[in-house]
Protein 1
Amino acid sequence: MPDNYPAVNNNTNILAIESSCDETAAAVISNDHVLSNIVASQAIHQYYGGVIPELASRAHQQKIIPVVNEALQKSGLKPSDLDAIAFTRGPGLMGALLVGVSFAKAFALALDLPLIEVNHMQAHVLAHFIRKRENENRFPKFPFLCLTVSGGHTQIVLVKDYLEMEVIGQTLDDAAGEAFDKAAKILGLPYPGGPLIDKYAKEGNPKAFPFPIPNIPGLDFSFSGLKTSFLYFIRDAKAKDETFIEKNKADICASIQHTIVDILLRKVKKASEETGITHIAIAGGVSANSGLRAAFLGMQEKAGWNVFIPPFEYCTDNAAMIAIAGYYKFLRKDFAGQDITPLARMNF
Ligand code: KG4
Ligand code: ZN
């Protein structure tokens, strides 16, 4: 329990719903300890090379009740044991969010429970405060920096407190996850390509094919130039040898991954130098990337950073992170009304 919030005598049990993109997820948390965390991924998007919003909404509609049922069953709790319902309000796809928000509102109304709205990007950061073991005490100390890297966002967040965060750097165009996914698409890999690039990169040489690092002022990022130079590089190499990708897949993947990680790491180093902050966290789907994890962990030795990386299951979209964010809002009694609506765009 954080010492700057009022004490709560009993366990606080929260059911959380996440439906912002292509994962239908539900989780149950008891204080900061996860009792269940169910994620149903939507395979349908693989056929289209990206998330199709209308199909995502339909799949959420089909999956939400089975996913919530399973989360409740696995938690061992009954609906009457719950103290609140938390849900992702945004940012995300409007139709997808509507399914989760409407479900949460109806469930809260039926059970006469308070509702807690959660910002998906804040939740990615707060995943660091999920307690994995009873005696766990390694958490980032405020203020810390969090690199939040997902399919839709790339941000350096200055985290001042559980619910007080400021974006101090962000992408001007594509997100880091998009850079991975678009590079994968150019290589003919299915969506989402990030995990596949990671897999092939493990066997390759990261220095085999150098790509340019963009020169963007301040703490902001840009990935669109990298995408274009990668596209032309592959096009030209294929023109000379049709089998170029097949022959060099591991080296190509290792090289593009190395470049994306380098772009991210350089800016976080800069942010650390400018702020003097050395507690550094990574969050979001791309923080599942093994190259990124290794590069950041390496900074513990090289620069004396304290690096925090969530377990895989809390990196990509999940509802446990919505639940822990809900828990900290519950402690503040920060509840939403039944008139709450989803927001496709949502600032901190
Ligand atoms: O946070 P997330 O699950 O969903 C969004 O909110 O966007 O992030 C999904 C992104 C996708 O772009 C996916 O390719 C990327 O995270 N991703 C990875 C890895 N695992 C997921 N990118 C690189 N390496 C990975 N291992
Ligand atoms: Zn996300």
Protein 2
Amino acid sequence: MENKEQAIEEEILINFEKKIENGDSIEPKDKMPDGYRKHLIRQISQHAHSEVIGMQPEGNWITRAPTLRAKQILLAKIQDEGGHGLYLYGAAETLGISRSELIEQLHTGKAKYSNIFNYPALTWADIGAIGWLVDGAAIVNQVSLQRTSYGPYSRAMVRICKEESFHQRQGYEIMAKMMAGTKEQQEMAQDAMNRWWWPSLMMFGPHDSSSPNSGNAFKWKIKRHSNDELRHKFIDKTVQQAQVIGLTIPDKDLKWNEKTGHYEHGAINWYEFHKVIAGNGPCNKQRMEHHIKVHNDGKWVREAAEAHRLKKERQN
Ligand code: 3HC
């Protein structure tokens, strides 16, 4: 009996590897190795958690947006992020995990979310820096993920990338306006740049040499570019955007390398990165407490929706 099962397992693996090799997309109904499924649940759920937690720093500024137009744009962006979270939770659920399990993993710290959302948004310029730098980094990462091997994830990325470009543009517009403004506004924008630049570089993950998941991610074509490749892509385009509006990149070691065609950057503070993703960043506690409170406050909505679904089911 054991040999028969073994033979079936081997056949599943051979078919799966053939599809990956051919560049076919893997769909929920396809048989897949457990490792592939687990890797995707880990990455997609953490991506979804990041989108939803990321609504908090920006949400704090809705009532303090400087104009009605700015408020409308911020509201639209935050609403988009909530939708991105839903697409991604939906994609994760196709792998056989429930929404409640995903949320429980977030609340117990078993699942991570992006380091970047554990920093406070102190001034209006932070909303510009978040849109321009954080969404700018997310776009570089997500454009690459449009070609990920798992179909539902790839299709979610195509949809999300369309909305991210608006997020990045509105952030850059805020920074450009402030840099064309008063001295105080310019100082506020540069201060935000100084606080958000390095955590944005950390968003791409550890250097390739210390990325434990990248090996499988490339073997299974989940990742199509490495952490460092995407980080370089982000730096190269963002440095030029900063120069156009007169912002200074807070990295004294930043220099153009004619040979590689990329900017070289200073050392990233990986001690800070690991401290933040271990739960000891400036806002981790606040972010989680808020998410748990709002999730519990919304319990009655979930129960009502479930009761309605069951009633409809009984009627049919
Ligand atoms: N924040 C928190 N944890 C991070 C991280 C970050 N920026 N970068 C890496 N990590 C974690 C990984 O999750 C992994 O821990 P785990 O094994 O417990 O999950 C560990 O550090 C080692 O990193 P690896 O490079 O080996 O892990 P990955 O191969 O998963 O690569 C990644 C990390 C590049 C972030 C990859 O997971 C990825 O591309 N994820 C999808 C994109 C994403 O999650 N973006 C988050 C921001 S979403 C956003 O900004 C929304 C925008 O609209 C505002």
